[in-house]
Amino acid sequence: MCGIFGYINYLVERDRKFILDTLLNGLSRLEYRGYDSAGLAVDGDKKNVVCAFKEVGKVAKLKELIEESKPDLTKTFESHAGISHTRWATHGTPSRLNCHPHRSDVNWEFSIVHNGIITNYKELKALLETKGFRFETETDTECIAKLTKYLYDQQPDIDFTVLAKAVVKELEGAFGLLIKSVHFPHEVIAARKGSPLVIGVRTSRKMKVDFVDVEYSEDGALPAEQASQNVAMKKSATGLLAPPDKSLLHRSQSRAFLSDDGVPQPAEFFLSSDPSAIVEHTKKVLYLEDDDIAHIHEGQLNIHRLTKDDGTSNVRAIQTIELELQEIMKGKFDHFMQKEIFEQPESVVNTMRGRLDVANKQVTLGGLRQYISTIRRCRRIIFVACGTSYHSCMAVRGVFEELTEIPISVELASDFLDRQAPVFRDDTCVFVSQSGETADSLMALRYCLERGALTVGVVNVVGSSISLLTHCGVHINAGPEIGVASTKAYTSQFVAMVMFALSLSEDRASKQKRREEIMEGLAKISEQFREILKLNDPIKQMCAKFFKNQKSLLLLGRGGQFPTALEGALKIKEISYLHCEAVMSGELKHGVLALVDENLPIIMILTRDNIFTKSLNAYQQVIARGGRPIVICNYDDPEFSSAQTEKIEVPKTVDCLQGLLNVIPLQLISYWLAVGEGLNVDFPRNLAKSVTVE
Ligand code: UD1
Ligand code: BG6
Questions:
Q1: Do domains 3-209+255-325 and 333-532 have the same CATH topology?
Q2: Among protein residues, the one whose CA lies closest to atom 12 of ligand 1
Q3: What range(s) does the SIS domain occupy (predicted)?
Q4: Nearest ligand, CA of residue 496?
Q5: Residue 106 pLDDT more than 60?
Q6: Which of 163, 213, 339, 572 is deepest in the core (most CB within 10 A)?
Q7: What is the rounded CA–CA span in Å between residue 303 and residue 224?
Q8: Which of 320, 466, 474, 497 has most ligand 1 atoms within 8 Å of its beta carbon, as the pocket-test mutant?
Q9: What is the CATH number of domain 534-694?
């Protein structure tokens, strides 16, 4: 779970300062993916010498280290390849030694940065040790560097791609990796299997075409015409439950980087685990697919695969991404999390844009249209997710059950896999993930694909693994979420899934009135978010007054508000490190009530719904034990009119949407609790944004 960034310039003169700044800047954009150590490798002053810097801590520390070592920043390079990495330790503690890039030998003949886990590294290490290699780190990655050198030494006239293919063939597990070598100056190999890698391209001239052909081991790439014929054939033959045919996303041939006379042009390439580190340099990006091996050399980009008939497309599109740099910067906010909380009035609108038509009482999810009637006929819908995304599934379970009358289950991906839960061809499995890369969710997706179920993704990151592997899905369009604690992705997932339930129930006459009520509720949500965000200052003060120096906090909710309590408790735990437990109010009397006294801080969600009187029972039970809960309730609720009651008042909406509003004060509470403790909100200890390990 790490961030990779690479920069290659070809016939574009750059000084070392520019190259180092570009790499360091790229790493700082990726810090949310891992931030316990960072490193980079660039060319040294002399030919065939690599200059590597590695440091424990954040990217700023690496920058300091580089400044202290005073490299010649004015040295210029007409062509150059630099690679860098920010780490979140899995194999071996954060240390200079364990941090990437890793090297094949003391001369850095091969330098490697890697994201993911090589599961057979012990076997490879044992083998390479018998060949005389001495390992210096505790990482799994080092074996890739040593293996590359071992294979190169067998055949020193080997081509870089042939070598990379031979290396990749030996690796088991997950990886996104970059290889730089003194034997192949100014070139980089980028390979992916299970970990995302994006390549940004910047050229001064317009690219001739916006595609790159895929080349195969056996007999090279198919001609363009044949490739498009294949696409057409696949299209007509594809049944709805056949493996997803993403080739339909692609168009025709490449030759993007050559001039009219076939000569390579000056070009710069930016490689990254995430487009957010690329957009400030170029909007032209290409997403590598699993098992792709990209070779960047002499201003060209070639994509290779080991086998031809693996069902993937023959071309990779160079797409234009519409991400603006300002979208990934903090702007006027102190933290990304704060910015993202305050972005919610816009992000939910973006989720609904072009999809919800309140005037005509219609919901259209383009990505599901073709599949909606199949889903209606399924025997059950299984939602699978982790963390916050799991809570958003819990939050919409009720509305799915009510509108579709299809049995619904909600599963934590890890537990679902542990149980090897039964899945059948007539199941619809929905994978909800902000990043679209979470290893547990991804493995559960593969498990369901193997069993022939229809798979649907609800993801934020376009081009992510879950988005690519599912049959169909919905992009929630919340924009990049950088803060580790997920906020706007939660509300956008919630809204996207409510729209999914509305689409599924479109054919049910008996549900029309209710559907319209929900659509009208959705149309007002953004404005109501704005109102709630005005509570920012009072909530900040409330946190200082009631929660300072507390050891524990209870959050009570019932029905649709139990998932809200779960999500609020997770937010508080993950960034303020205060123990916080979500309790289903109906369960209070069965045990947790023993904890309640006049000292324990309690927050109770008591907005009005059809089980309000039952929720009030729990409130009375708490009051009777001397508890003084803070209440989240609707405006001017007579039940809580006493001046003694501490309350956070929120607007009222349709019951099944109320959780969208109620979660926002909890997000703000978690934020201000963490800030009050002087904690780094965007980088909570032990956690990372994108958990690509099991
Ligand atoms: C798409 C375009 C959007 C454009 C709109 C116009 C993309 C990413 N979106 O949005 O820019 O404005 O058409 O009609 O190009 N998918 C999955 N799994 C997932 C998520 C999505 O397979 O987890 C698939 C969908 O089935 C669909 C495609 O990806 O085929 C795009 O999904 P989505 O962005 O949600 O579709 P639209 O809202 O139609
Ligand atoms: C991690 C994050 O654990 O993954 C959580 O720290 C997140 O915030 C969880 O909810 C699931 O991530 P995703 O990307 O699958 O929604």
A1: no
A2: 354
A3: 371-510, 543-684
A4: 1
A5: yes
A6: 572
A7: 15
A8: 474
A9: 3.40.50.10490
Give pLDDT tens digits for 566-603: 999 999 999 998 899 999 998 888 888 788 888 889 99
Q: Establish whether residue 387 lines the binding site of ligand 2, counting it when its CB lies within 6 angstroms of any ligand atom.
A: yes
pLDDT more than 70, % of the chain: 90
Who's near 644: CB < 8 A, 6+ residues apart? none
Q: Is 212 in the pocket of ligand 2 (CB under 6 A)?
A: no
To the nearest 10°, report the CA torsion of 470, 473, 479, 483.
Answer: -50
The whole-number pLDDT of residue 91 equals 67
pLDDT (0 to 100) of residue 384: 98
Does residue 467 have its Cβ closer than 6 Å to ligand 1?
Answer: yes
The residue to mutate among 412, 465, 486, 492, having the most atoms of ligand 2 within 8 angstroms of its beta carbon, is: 486
Instruction: Report whether residue 432 contacts ligand 1, using a CB cutoff of 6 Å.
Output: no
Catalytic residues: 2
Q: Compute the average pLDDT of residues 448-473.
A: 93
Residues 6+ apart with CB under 8 A from 643: none
Q: What is the CATH number of domain 3-209+255-325?
A: 3.60.20.10
- Domain 333-532 - what CATH class? alpha beta
Identify the H or E element spanning 22.
helix 16-29
Give DSSP secondary structure letters for 415-436. Answer: HHHHHT----TTEEEEEEESSS
What is the number of the ligand 2 atom nearest to the C-alpha of 441? 15
What are the sequence ranges of the domains in the chain?
Answer: 3-209+255-325, 333-532, 534-694
Q: What is the CA radius of gyration of the chain?
A: 27
Confidence of residue 162 (pLDDT cuts 50, 70, 90): very high
Task: Indicate the range of 14-23, 383-392, 433-442, 475-484 predicted with least confidence.
Answer: 475-484
Taking Cα atoms as reference points, which of 176, 153, 10, 131 lies closest to residue 81? Answer: 10
